[in-house]
């Protein structure tokens, strides 16, 4: 050990950090055996810290190579304590996590056990395998013949067909080429990209982590799609931002994008034709917030977007179909998790296909952060809201018809991590669907690879020969980049001098980086590789274009940390005069920056840890720049197509430096890579992308709102509804009471009383302003002159045998301007409604009846009770059924319209359109069978295992599977059940209700919150004109009713206990990530008695 006193320090550090004696002896034996410094360094750092910290062990190597023993010993001692501190901190964190897990274990022993990362991944992998196996077993032998079992899917899109350097996806048997069809300009496409600063020109790319390549991509996609001959209009929906700290343009409600056409012909089109950015207000009105804070406002965005789409569908129907039919969106395309969540809700409300592009995925990011070991999952979730993001991506997979990816790697290695997607199961389901074989209710979205496009019309590249100042340049003469023509030389752009002022020798080749200062972009590793490789430093300059900044202190934490580290590394390696890092650049400067790098025979590099696609690589290739790129993600496919550079391991700094040096120093290699890139770049043009895009979405199952009984009734129709007529009678009774009559304001009790009142005071006209005395009419015409609904009330008859909605009901709902929704989940311990629910209903009805404008305000009851239970409840309290315009029952799986009458069973009419609306992807019997196997407890030897759930067949309906909760303490949480169903390809909503006494499984498009949006789409009752009354807690779908543009009143004390405990495990996201705690749309009522005041305020408010 002599001369190696630092080893003792490391051994002490290992002992103090908790490693065993055997490991210490092994370490000493390895050192004694003469291991080299690199191996020893790596071994000890990994042993103590638990992960491969490359920077730490490189520092150790340098310290161990110090010439003077005393200095070497001091530096080694410092490193020993540094590593020991890391180990101790990790040990303390692990202990804290263990205590938290133990606490959670004690609280919920059956289903809430948490394991360390390795056990978590292993368990998840086993569960995924089990789900896939069960799905395969249930879809196997009985349906496929022997030949079909072994026959491969020759028409599958997996894998792609490779033709030369171009990757083309294989065509399916039912795929049609848009070129083979007559292209009529009729399509309306909706794109959604919520976060970041989105505008058509002068995009502030790199300003922050939310305004990057995705913003540029969606804007150019919208513009390119609008130029296709079959597309009439494209709307890009984003968030409206009125923050004084950003440009006023981000607050404009609408911005037009399209200014030209691919075709030479100018076709006539309506005034709404083209591409538009539409900004929807949501969240803090005057504050620009990062994407991680947008989650509580998703439903608010959805309601605003739904209002815009409905209005646009009507306008486009007038322009395209001459007003005969609405033009519904062809697809709704969500970009990133937040927009995917929004698109899934909009798709469900409108019943139109949804398309998803993930851009970057939460599970992949979470696994990388956990692998690094620098943050716990709790800290990661707090910073990035990662669990909320992952659930949004899972919800998007539930709804999406099509998922568009940029690369094959994204499908297999990133989407493959999700519960809702399995490559093998998806392929098997697709084969069965094509052969019309039952999939037993299972579904997985189809995934296709469509690389992003690029507009080449403004690209100027230098001549491919020797690059000198006086040669002619080349420009692409068409939009798809297939033809180049010479252009005259131009003066140097200002951005060139801004960059070159940093360099001592500006004539050296430039290594160009164009990325925001985000840790995952790995800029610091590139800088270290450059600084430590003297030959590379001597040969080239480094240009770091890291967005725009004014003051580092005012930047977000992650970006500021990267920039500070960059400045420190420049100082550490003394790179002044060799590295440029300008503070500002405009979007229009980016092509000139590429051109400058190509002019110096430079190289473009993307060293990101993982790059979903790499649009900057396409841009660089279009300007004649060879590339060095990460081998993780999209660059692999780009290199296969363009063959214009080298791929490297982003964690290996030597490999990065060697690749850069090779490209810069080898003239022939540089020219070959440049030539290949320019030759093949047209494969990434926007016209090519859009043609493929439209051909793929044409294969989606086209659906849009279609009503079986679309009784078109004018809003001013004279026909009155049952509810309105009976309210007229109550008005008469009220006047009688005021005149001293014995009749009370609640109305008459019998048909005879009705007739007496009408005999004396008359019938109100349809406009509600004049009263015609009945006694003045001839006896034979008295009954005929009454509204039809009052005739039925007097005679005691109803249209109970009618299977369709009456036109009077249509007229009623279309005339409503406001809607009050009672959604108070107040139940006793047995799951039966208690007095607080009835007290709330009575308070609302009383407040509504006292309002003179009550005809404009409708009333809806939304509950987990079945229709028969609701009727019994109202009858027990003597509340007439006709007080309600609609009943949303069985947790949103059924929608009924009461029409009056004494017989409660005859008063309800189911909405057949709602039944067909929510039938999408409903598993039915296959889902029931799978749930039976999931809920059957596994035997633990001879010990009897109690069952937590059992079927409740009395409460089943065609779109609801009902279960009794026998043992709430043993019941799995909603997210655990949903996980197991997704792994088996089953898509639905699971919710506990009635104070943990019941559980409902309903279709994907069914929910109490979505039923309100259905009323908006079906009857024009704007969600913004609704008042939703809820308790402080409730069923597990309670939080979905809190957020949106509707007004929400939370009644304190109305609900004493709910089902929140069974919604999510403790490590998942919180309610605050779904709905805001407060805001302009949320108010509270201290008691049930205060509800009436809130209702009065709502009914009298102006819309």
Automatic annotation (TrEMBL):
SUPFAM superfamilies with a match to the protein in the record: UDP-Glycosyltransferase/glycogen phosphorylase
Keyword field: Glycosyltransferase, Transferase
Organism: Marchantia polymorpha (Common liverwort)
One GO term of the biological process aspect: sucrose biosynthetic process
Subunit structure: Homodimer or homotetramer.
Pathway(s) where this gene product acts: Glycan biosynthesis; sucrose biosynthesis; sucrose from D-fructose 6-phosphate and UDP-alpha-D-glucose: step 1/2
UniProt catalytic activity: beta-D-fructose 6-phosphate + UDP-alpha-D-glucose = sucrose 6(F)-phosphate + UDP + H(+)
GO molecular function, one term: sucrose-phosphate synthase activity
Enzyme class, spelled out: transferase
EC number(s) on file: 2.4.1.14
The protein, known as: Sucrose-phosphate synthase
Domain Sucrose phosphatase-like: 838-1054
Start and end residues of each Glycosyl transferase family domain: 505-677
Xref: NCBIfam families: sucrsPsyn_pln (TIGR02468)
Bias (Low complexity) ranges: 798-809
Record's function text: Plays a role in photosynthetic sucrose synthesis by catalyzing the rate-limiting step of sucrose biosynthesis from UDP-glucose and fructose- 6-phosphate. Involved in the regulation of carbon partitioning in the leaves of plants. May regulate the synthesis of sucrose and therefore play a major role as a limiting factor in the export of photoassimilates out of the leaf. Plays a role for sucrose availability that is essential for plant growth and fiber elongation.
């Amino acid at each position: 050990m002599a001369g190696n006193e630092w080893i003792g320090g490391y051994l002490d550090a290992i002992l103090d950090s908790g490693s065993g004696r055997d490991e210490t002896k092994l370490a000493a034996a390895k050192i004694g055996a003469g291991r080299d410094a690199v191996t020893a360094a790596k071994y000890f750092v990994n042993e103590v810290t638990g992960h491969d910290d490359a920077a730490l062990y490189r520092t150790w190597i340098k310290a161990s190579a110090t010439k003077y023993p005393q200095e070497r010993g001091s530096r080694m001692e410092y490193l020993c304590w540094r590593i020991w501190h890391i180990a101790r901190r990790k040990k303390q964190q692990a202990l804290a996590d263990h205590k938290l897990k133990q606490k959670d274990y004690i609280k919920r022993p059956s289903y809430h056990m948490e394991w360390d990362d390795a056990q978590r991944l292993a368990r998840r992998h086993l569960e995924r395998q089990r789900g896939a196996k069960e799905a395969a077993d249930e879809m196997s032998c009985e349906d496929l013949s022997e030949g079909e079992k072994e026959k491969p899917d020759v028409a599958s899109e997996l894998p792609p067909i490779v033709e030369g350097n171009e990757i083309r996806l294989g065509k399916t048997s039912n795929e049609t080429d848009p070129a083979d069809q007559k292209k009529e300009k009729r399509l309306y496409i909706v794109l959604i990209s919520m976060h970041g600063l989105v505008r058509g020109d002068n995009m502030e790319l790199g300003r922050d982590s939310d305004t990057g390549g995705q913003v540029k991509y969606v804007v150019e996609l919208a513009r390119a799609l609008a130029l296709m001959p079959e597309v009439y209009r494209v709307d890009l929906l984003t968030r409206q931002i009125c923050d004084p700290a950003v440009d006023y343009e981000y607050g404009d409600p609408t911005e037009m994008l399209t200014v030209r056409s691919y075709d030479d012909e100018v076709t006539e089109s309506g005034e709404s034709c083209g591409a538009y950015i539409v900004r929807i207000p949501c969240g803090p009105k005057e504050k620009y917030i990062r994407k991680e804070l947008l989650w509580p406002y998703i439903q608010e965005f959805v309601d605003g977007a739904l209002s815009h789409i409905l209005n646009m569908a009507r306008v486009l129907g007038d322009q395209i179909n001459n007003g005969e039919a609405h033009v519904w969106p062809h697809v709704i395309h969500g970009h990133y998790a937040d927009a995917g969540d929004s698109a899934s809700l909009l798709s469900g409300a409108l019943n139109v296909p949804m398309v998803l592009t993930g851009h970057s995925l939460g599970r992949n990011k979470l696994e990388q952060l956990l692998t690094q070991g620098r943050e716990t999952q709790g800290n990661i979730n707090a910073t990035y809201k990662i669990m909320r993001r992952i659930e949004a991506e899972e919800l998007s997979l539930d709804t999406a018809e099509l998922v568009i990816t940029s690369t094959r790697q994204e499908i297999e290695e990133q989407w493959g991590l999700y519960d809702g997607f399995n490559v093998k199961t998806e392929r098997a389901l697709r084969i069965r669907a094509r052969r019309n074989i039952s999939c037993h209710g299972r579904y997985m979205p189809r995934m296709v690879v469509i690389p992003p496009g690029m507009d080449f019309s403004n690209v100027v590249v230098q001549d491919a020969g020797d690059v000198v100042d006086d040669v002619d340049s080349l420009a692409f003469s068409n939009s798809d980049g297939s033809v180049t023509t010479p252009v005259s030389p131009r003066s140097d752009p200002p951005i060139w001098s801004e960059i070159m002022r940093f360099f001592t020798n500006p004539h050296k080749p430039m290594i160009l980086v164009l990325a925001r200062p985000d840790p995952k972009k790995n800029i610091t590793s590139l800088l270290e590789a450059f600084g430590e490789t003297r030959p590379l430093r001597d040969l080239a300059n480094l240009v770091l274009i890291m967005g725009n900044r004014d003051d580092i202190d005012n930047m977000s934490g992650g970006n500021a940390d990267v920039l500070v580290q960059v400045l420190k590394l420049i100082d550490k390696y003394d790179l002044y005069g060799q590295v440029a890092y300008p503070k500002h650049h405009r979007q229009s400067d980016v092509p000139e920056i590429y051109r400058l790098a190509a002019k110096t025979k430079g190289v473009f590099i993307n060293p990101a840890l993982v790059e979903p696609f790499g649009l900057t690589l396409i841009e660089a290739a279009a300007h004649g720049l060879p590339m060095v790129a990460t081998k993780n993600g999209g660059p692999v496919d780009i290199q296969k197509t363009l063959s214009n550079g080298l791929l490297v391991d982003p964690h290996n700094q030597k490999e990065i430096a060697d690749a850069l040096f090779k490209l810069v120093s080898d003239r022939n290699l540089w020219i070959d890579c440049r030539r290949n890139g320019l030759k093949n770049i047209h494969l990434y043009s926007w016209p090519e992308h859009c043609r493929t895009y439209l051909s793929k979405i044409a294969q989606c199952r086209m659906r849009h709102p279609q009503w079986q009984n679309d009784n078109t009734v004018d809003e001013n129709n004279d026909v009155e509804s049952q509810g309105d007529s009976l309210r007229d009678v109550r008005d008469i009774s009220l006047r009688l009471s005021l005149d001293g009559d014995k009749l009370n304001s609640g109305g008459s009790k019998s048909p005879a009383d009705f007739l007496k009142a009408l005999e004396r005071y008359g019938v109100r006209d349809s406009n509600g302003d004049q009263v015609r005395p009945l006694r003045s009419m001839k006896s034979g015409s008295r009954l005929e002159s009454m509204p039809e609904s009052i005739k039925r009330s007097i005679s005691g008859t109803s249209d109970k045998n009618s299977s369709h909605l009456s036109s009077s009901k249509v007229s009623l709902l279309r005339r409503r301007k406001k809607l009050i929704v009672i959604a108070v989940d107040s139940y006793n311990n047995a799951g039966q409604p208690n007095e607080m629910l009835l007290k709330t209903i009575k308070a609302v009805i009383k407040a509504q009846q006292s309002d003179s404008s009550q005809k404009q305000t409708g009333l809806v009851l939304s509950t987990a009770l079945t229709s028969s239970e609701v009727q019994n409840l109202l009858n027990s309290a003597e509340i007439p059924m006709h007080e309600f315009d609609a009943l949303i029952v069985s947790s949103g799986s059924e929608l009924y319209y009461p029409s009056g009458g004494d017989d409660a069973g005859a008063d309800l009419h189911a909405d057949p359109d709602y039944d067909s609306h929510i039938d999408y992807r409903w598993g039915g019997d296959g889902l029931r069978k799978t749930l039976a196997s999931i809920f059957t407890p596994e035997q633990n030897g001879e010990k009897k295992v109690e069952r937590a759930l059992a079927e409740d067949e009395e409460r089943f309906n065609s779109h609801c599977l009902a279960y009794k909760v026998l043992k709430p303490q043993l019941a799995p949480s909603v997210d655990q059940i949903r996980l197991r169903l997704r792994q088996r390809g089953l898509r639905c909503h699971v919710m506990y209700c009635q104070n943990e006494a019941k559980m409902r499984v309903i279709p994907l498009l069914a929910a109490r919150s979505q039923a309100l949006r259905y009323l908006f789409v079906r009857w024009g009752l704007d969600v913004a004109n609704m008042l939703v009354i809820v308790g402080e807690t409730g069923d597990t779908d309670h939080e979905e009713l809190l957020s949106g543009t509707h007004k929400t009143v939370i009644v304190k004390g109305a609900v004493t206990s709910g089902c929140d405990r069974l919604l999510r495990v403790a490590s998942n996201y919180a309610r605050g990530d779904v709905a805001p705690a407060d805001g302009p749309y949320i108010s509270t009522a201290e008691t049930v008695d205060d509800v009436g005041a809130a209702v009065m305020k709502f009914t009298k408010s102006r819309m």
